[in-house]
Amino acid sequence: MNVKPLFKLMVEKKASDLFFAPFAPAKIKIDGKIMPVNKLEMTPKMVKQAAFELMNEDQLDRFARELELDFAISEPGLGRFRVNVFQQRGNVAMVLRYITAELPTLDELGMPEQMKELVMLRRGLILMVGATGSGKSTTLAAMVNHRNEKTSSHIITIEDPIEFLHPNKQSIVNQREVGLDTKSYGRALKSAMRA
After folding, report:
1. Res 1: pLDDT
2. Each residue's pLDDT tens digit, 72-122
3. Does residue 123 share a domain with residue 61?
4. In a domain, 131, yes or no
5. N or C: which end of the chain has fewer CB within 10 A?
6. Residue 108, domain member (yes or no)
7. Residues 71, 80 contacting (CB under 8 angstroms)
8. Given this model, what pLDDT does residue 164 score?
9. Residue 72 near residue 85 (C-beta atoms within 8 A)
10. What local confidence, expressed as pLDDT, does residue 126 receive?
11. Rounded to an integer, what distance in angstroms lies between the CA atom of residue 101 and that of residue 97?
């Protein structure tokens, strides 16, 4: 089953998520409401095929070992999508989340001025926690974008998966994806301390 036409539907309808589960039609989430895309009940084989078509060979191997996988894909002309594939009740299921191509700003997110000051500090650790869909990735992207626009520095992100793509502006931004560019957060962090 080719799921790529549904990516366009997501963007057109401003859907945040696309769900695939066996014995149900594909569903999209628009403004917090989940609704079917069509009436076609997907078989376990259809869902598995849809998920596996989005994976490369390494990702297929990792999924076979771990029974779950997060990764991001780019669809030209549409943007990026974060993909979560997992096993549930012995079958493959998948959720895709649309990632807007535009980098958010801290002002657009309504963040306080202290956030701008915090992200400009030379040293420190920022922990971003919250429920799924609460805006953690978007807030972090806005923070990286702010620093990238305002100062000349070397920014290294360690992500799983990379969601927002940061072009070099005033700073050099290196984005490392766990599983693709590094074996673990720990190893990447150790390497970043030396960069």
Report:
1. 74
2. 999 988 889 999 999 999 999 999 999 988 889 999 999 999 999 999 998
3. no
4. yes
5. C
6. no
7. no
8. 93
9. no
10. 84
11. 13
Mean pLDDT for the chain? 94
- Band (pLDDT 50/70/90 cuts) for residue 4 is confident
Domain coverage including residue 188? 113-194
pTM for the predicted model, two decimal places: 0.80
Spatial contact of 76 and 64, defined as CB atoms under 8 Å apart: no
Q: Of 177, 155, 182, 178, whose CA–CA distance to 167 is shortest?
A: 155
**Spatial separation of the C-alpha atoms in residues 110 and 133, rounded to whole Å:** 17
Instruction: Tell me if 69 sits within 8 A of 85, measured CB to CB.
Output: yes
Cα 7 to Cα 15: distance, rounded to the nearest angstrom: 9
Cα dist from 75 to 88, 121, 171, 175, 177, whole Å: 27, 35, 26, 19, 18
Angstrom distance (rounded) from CA 121 to CA 88:
43
Window from 16-30, 126-140, 170-184 with minimum mean pLDDT: 126-140
β-strand pairing of 33-36 with 172-177:
unpaired
Q: Mark which of 74, 99, 124 sits at the end of a domain.
A: 99
Q: Are residue 146 and residue 92 in the same domain, yes or no?
A: no
- Let me know: does 61 contact 14? Beta carbons within 8 Å: no
How many domains does the chain contain in total?
2
The answer to the question of residue 105 being in a domain is no
Q: Which two tokens stand for residue 81?
A: 């999508």
Could you tell me which of 166, 164, 170 has the C-alpha nearest to residue 149? 170
